[in-house]
Write a structure and sequence with these properties.
The complex is a heterodimer of chains A (276) and B (312).
Chain A lengths: L4 H25 L4 H6 L1 H11 L14 E4 L5 H11 L39 H14 L6 E5 L1 H5 L2 H11 L5 E7 L2 E2 L2 E2 H4 L5 H8 L2 E6 L3 H11 L7 E6 L22 H10 L4
Chain B lengths: L4 H13 L5 E5 L3 H4 L2 H6 L4 E3 L4 H13 L3 E7 H7 L1 H10 L5 E5 L17 H6 L5 E4 L3 H13 L4 E4 L21 E4 L4 E5 L2 H15 L4 E5 L2 E3 L3 H11 L2 E8 L4 H11 L6 E6 L9 H7 L4 H12 L4
Parallel strand pairs in B: 1-2, 1-3, 3-4, 4-6, 5-6, 8-9, 8-11, 11-12
Antiparallel strand pairs in B: 5-10, 7-9
Classes of the chains: A alpha/beta (276), B alpha/beta (312).
């Protein structure tokens, strides 16, 4: 357990590159979701570069771990991470959201190698991830399922149906990671739909709750390790994050949920992210 | 005495699912009604009762399907096609996952519970979803085949079941084929294309009509999607009139599907619809409801007479 300082630095460097590349991609596409892509960066990086057992040479390997990006609008960051992992060339990021692309606006198992579930409509992903976890358990694969939730998912009732079911069925190979960035499309969660103490809510449902700093790859890896110790319960990592993390004028701003990036903003974002 | 469709379904689930480790059955607290309880008794480790959480059940099924399982989900058809529609669309239809939606208590068969529990829109809704195949069980033997077919044939399916006993239509050993209607009775004056309980009713109506000199061909269109366009067009051309009969709204169901085929095939024959008018029914005894809302043998016979009279 625990990342070496060297490995941590390496992952942080990767995160920096992913942020710059995603901003590049979204500036080029002039459509897509910057805020939630930037907040989920460390979560996806920690998962794919430290924890998740997948093989880009065999994307459909039956006993692989699964990742469900329930907050499917953060697809640009998922695609960038999958490209780095080797599922498809990073060059393909330029085609995001364009006609004939493999990189659809929201993740699609029909189009993109490495994507484990089509997502987009919020709230349904955790239920599907639970089905995956139970199916993988029936097949004795030892595989785990990681479900990345956003604030929008937490708004939806189905998440709480899955929350009860996962405990009933003792799905301890299901690990939810909640990208708690506290801002949704129309405004701050506190103004649109106050989420209350989500940690306490999951705990009351019977989940093992593991709060951590969602922008600290070391803390995330430690929390994932803890969640992987089976104890008969599903786990949720409450990852405290900032929407738009890394770009000062996007941080905490609902207006950057899904806005096209203009030239001046792009230049400033790139400068802040240490690009050229 | 024929067997209730729900009983035939529960027995078929056990018969074909017991020895197939990929079959999993999900239920939303209606296992005694849907008869998925029979599978629970046989294979408890592959049975998942999620409580009253239909949307969650439908989405969980997608997860099972994505890791190679063959999930059958069970609840009343009306809850399946409403609360289960989002998962049906994004996971079954869009993603092509191998989910089996088993719509119990469809039509007016949950008669006493009233329109909140009736289902008269499911065929229209589910056949509009790309990639979904849609079937309507017509008797207990057909139900048995549909369950076997759902296990053997990959892809999202909606199968409309019923609470009730339907008239037996088929002899043991009958062979069914995906996308192929069955000619139950041949005739030269009019075609009655029916599904579900209406198949047995159409046969009865044909007997009455025969005594009046109207020779009706009766088709069981248990496969709504894919639809047997060839059989329908040939029947329309050779009999010169088509009446559809379904325990469903007259909008968008079997009548709509058959009309699309006849229009595209330039059949140019008079068409009549037997189905629930654009309304909701009410509670009451099943047979009385079918009669009041003109979904019975006399209603089919009357619609056939009216349609045949329009033949040139």
């Amino acid at each position: 357990m625990g990342l070496t300082a060297e490995r941590k630095a390496c992952l942080e460097k990767l995160c920096g590159k992913f942020r710059r590349d995603v901003i590049d991609t979204l500036y080029g596409s002039q459509t897509g979701h910057p805020g939630g892509s930037l907040s989920v960066c460390e979560i996806l990086t920690a998962l794919y570069f430290e924890k998740v057992r997948v093989d880009p040479a065999e994307p459909q390997k039956p006993d692989r771990d699964r990742v469900v990006l329930c907050k499917g609008h953060a697809a640009p960051m998922l695609y960038r991470v999958l490209a780095e992992k080797g599922f498809f060339p990073a060059e393909e990021m330029k085609t995001l959201r364009r006609l004939n692309t493999r990189l659809q606006g929201h993740p699609s198992i029909k189009h993109t190698p490495g994507v484990d579930l089509s997502t987009g409509p919020l709230g349904a992903g955790l239920s599907a991830a639970l089905g995956m976890a139970l199916g993988l358990r029936l097949s004795n694969t030892g595989a785990r399922v990681y479900a990345i939730l956003g604030d929008g998912d937490i708004n939806e009732g189905m998440v709480w149906e899955a929350g009860m079911s996962a405990v009933k069925f003792k799905a301890d190979n299901l690990i939810a990671i909640y990208d708690w960035n506290k801002v949704q499309l129309d405004g701050k969660c506190d103004d649109i739909m106050p989420l209350g103490d989500v940690n306490a809510k999951f705990a009351a449902f019977g989940w093992r709750c593991l709060p951590c700093d969602g922008h600290d790859v070391g803390a995330l890896c430690d929390a994932i390790d803890k969640a992987c110790e089976p104890d008969g319960r599903p786990s949720v990592i409450i990852a405290d994050t900032v929407k738009g993390k890394g770009v000062s004028f996007m941080e905490g701003k609902n207006t950057w949920h899904g806005k096209a990036i203009g030239e001046a903003d792009y230049k400033q974002a790139v400068a802040e992210l240490g690009g050229e | 005495m024929a067997k209730a469709i729900r009983e035939a379904y529960g027995e078929a689930l056990v018969k074909y699912g017991r020895d197939n480790p990929d079959v999993v059955v999900l239920e939303a607290d209606l296992s005694g009604s849907t008869r998925s309880a029979l599978f629970q008794a046989a294979c408890p480790e592959r049975f998942f009762n999620v409580g009253v959480a239909e949307a969650n059940m439908a989405a969980m099924a997608a997860g099972f399907a994505s890791v190679g399982k063959i999930p059958f989900i069970n609840t009343f058809a009306t809850f399946m096609i409403t609360l289960g529609l989002l998962p049906a669309r994004v996971y079954g239809s869009y993603s092509g996952l191998n989910v089996k939606y088993m719509g119990a208590y469809s039509g007016l068969s949950d008669s006493y519970d009233g329109p909140s529990h009736h289902t008269v829109e499911d065929i229209a809704l589910m056949r509009a979803l790309p990639n979904f195949r849609v079937y309507v069980a017509s008797d207990e033997l057909n139900t048995d085949w549909l369950v076997k077919h759902a296990i053997e044939s990959k892809g999202p399916m909606y199968i409309r079941l019923s609470r009730d006993v339907f008239p037996s239509v088929y002899e043991p050993g009958t062979k069914f084929e995906d996308g192929k209607g069955k000619v139950i009775r041949d005739g030269k004056d009019v075609t009655i294309a029916a599904c579900g309980i209406m198949v047995g009713f159409a046969l009865e109506a044909a007997k009455i009509l025969a005594s009046e000199g109207i020779d009706a061909r009766v088709l069981d269109i248990f496969s709504i999607k894919p639809l047997d366009a060839e059989l329908l067009l040939e029947s329309a051309r050779s009999t010169g009139a088509v009446v559809t009969a379904e325990e469903h709204s007259v909008m968008g169901g079997l009548g709509g599907a058959v009309s699309e085929v006849l229009a595209l095939g330039h059949a140019g024959v008079p068409v009549g619809f037997v189905g629930l008018a654009d309304c909701h029914a009410e509670c009451g005894a099943y047979k009385e409801l079918l009669s009041k809302y003109q979904l019975d043998v006399p209603a089919i016979a009357a619609k056939v007479r009216e349609t045949v009279a329009k033949k040139r």
